[in-house]
Amino acid sequence: MSVFSRVARGRLAAWLTVAAAIVVGAAVFGLPQPDNPAPVSGSGLSLQWQSTQVERLQDQLPSSEVQPAIVVVSRGDGAALSEADRGALTARSGDLGGLAVGGQVSPPQVSPDGTVALVAVPLSTAGGQDEVIEQVDRVRAALADLPDGLTVEVTGAPAFTADLSSVFDGADITLLAVTAAVVALLLLITYRSPFLWIVPLVVVAATEQLTLRAVDVIVPGVGINLQQGQVTGIASVLVFGAATDYALLLIARYREELRREEDRFAAMRAALRRTAEPILASGSTVVLGVLTLLLSEQETNRALAVACATGVVFAMLSALFVLPAVLVLFGRGLFWPFVPRVGGPVREGRLWGRLGASVQRRPVVVATLATVLLGGLALGGLGIRTGLSETEQFRAEPEAVTGAQTLARAFPAGSTQPVAVITTPAAVRAVTEAASAVPGVASARPGDAGAAVAQVDVVLDAEPGTTTSDRTIEALREAVAAVPGSAPPAPAGADTPSGAIVGGSVAATYDSDEANDRDLRLILPIILLLVGGVLVLLLRGLLAPLLLVLTVIASFFASLGAAWLLFDHVLGFPALDSGVLLLAFVFLVALGVDYNIFLVTRAREDARSAGTRAGMLSALRVTGGVITSAGVLLAAVFAVLGVLPLITLTQIGIIVCIGVLLDTLLVRTVLVPALAFLLGDRFWWPGRITRETVEASPRSPEPVAAHD
């Protein structure tokens, strides 16, 4: 076949691939979007948790679709409210009554010190979240023109719902813009070409948008409620990072092959043969890792598992099919001004060759120092605190948070969110007395009652979500469950309770923390086994996979310790959110092992012609630049999660950012090579490298001296 025919066929195949990608993308965007299933509960927990059982049983109460918005009024100078202030609030109560369920509100309650007044405005939740937001806006508008000097804040569950929604307004666009800008800048710096960076950026951005559309269809389609914001934000960042990493690996190998092949289509085929295995292994590791979140008790984590797995699959497909087709269509000129020519000089890898040679000379010392450094960073997490209260979730405090803080200064801190105890109507009095006797309970009084169930409203002294609040919830559950005849009928699908059960948003936060602890104990060993299994299949040995998994674990604890020092002493975060540990571990293990896969698969390839030590040295030299660029880029992309308004997302972004940098700049750069230099061919035990002669391998690594 003539050269012209081969080029024509290659160009046709590339155009057909691009056309097929466009058709697939159009088909995905054209899929009908299913209705988003209702969440399993407000907290996302199943029926085995008391808070979810309470939520289901509250549907039997007359006021099941009513929640109070709490209007908090105080003076800006902190002084006591005057008679005129109280009169103005009382006069405005009529306007609030027109917005309340039942058409009226109770008179204002004034704190014992006279500095704060509150009015509870019962609002209907039957219309869904959008209706709740609209009602809260109307309540705030009705109080906008109170006399000067008065501060009015609306808090309570409906206000938290409205404010959480508002802080995410425009966040998706901001996240996309900042992420794209970061990726564009780093690609421009990496390639030092005015054109080359555009191609991977466009392909990656299209992949991210396609992923988000697919997630809108797939997650509800499998019966999981999709919460926009947190789930789509993390999935978006992951796709940008993973797809760009794969693009960097492919383009680096393509450029390497262009120095050997005149035909760019042949060069791309060779590059794909050499990069498909690490990309598929890397992507499979991430997919399996995030899919372990399907075992989570939290519905949000299960949605995240499906969304992230979908995104990584699209990232692999774009790197192995779409990006190669686009690159070959543009030809060598895309690399201008550093156009790779056959037999041209190799500019990459000199620094990494010198670093590898230094590590090879003293592998024991280097491995020891790297391990000590990781251990030292891990010690920073010894004083770690977990569990954020509801008012500590936001980086910028919305009105619902400041209102709750104002209320907590003058009333019991739990006034904004009373705990709901569900029992039988006949046991209400006994349950109320038992709840009132629990230390940490400010008050307990009978609430709404239906034919089969009744509610007791309990106000705690402690702020919701704190350790003190959690201890009170534990004691309260024990006390009310012991009341004879207090067990309500079991909700459909749940076991019959032994006594009265405790729920509400405060108890749901406690249950969520317990669920997160259970998830950690279950999912952590599973993901380590899955990642180890992928490495065993890829490297055909046991010792190297074991060492790589151990280095990733060490990197996680080091990144957690370093991040906690930053959170505690620099950013002033009160604690680590209880759900962060699981997500950070999953992402760091799944993503952190990627760079070891990229390095070690190349080392195994080169070791066939030069031996393990020379192969690792060659792999470090030829992959050092691209892996470092990929790691820095992925770390920067996850750091972009900090633009979102929740402390939880900021913490995940920073921990993963630090962990990826450690994996890229310390573990992959010096620790893993030092272990390979130290062990030699035993690194692959019980497998072994089949040696090839240098003459028989046209792709044998060039001697390091030729590049240094």
UniProtKB/TrEMBL annotation:
Topology in the lipid bilayer: Multi-pass membrane protein
Subcellular location, principal: membrane
UniProtKB keywords: Cell membrane, Membrane, Transmembrane, Transmembrane helix
A family per Pfam: MMPL
UniProt key word Transmembrane: yes
Residue intervals of the SSD domain: 549-677
UniProt cross-references to InterPro entries, sorted A to Z: MMPL_dom, Mycobact_MmpL, SSD
Keyword Transmembrane assigned: yes
GO cellular component terms, A-Z: plasma membrane
Annotated compartments: Cell membrane
Transmembrane segments: 12-31, 170-188, 195-212, 232-254, 275-296, 302-331, 364-384, 522-539, 546-567, 579-601, 622-647, 653-679
Entry's family note: Belongs to the resistance-nodulation-cell division (RND) (TC 2.A.6) family. MmpL subfamily.
Protein name listed in UniProt: SSD domain-containing protein
Organism of derivation: Micromonospora inaquosa
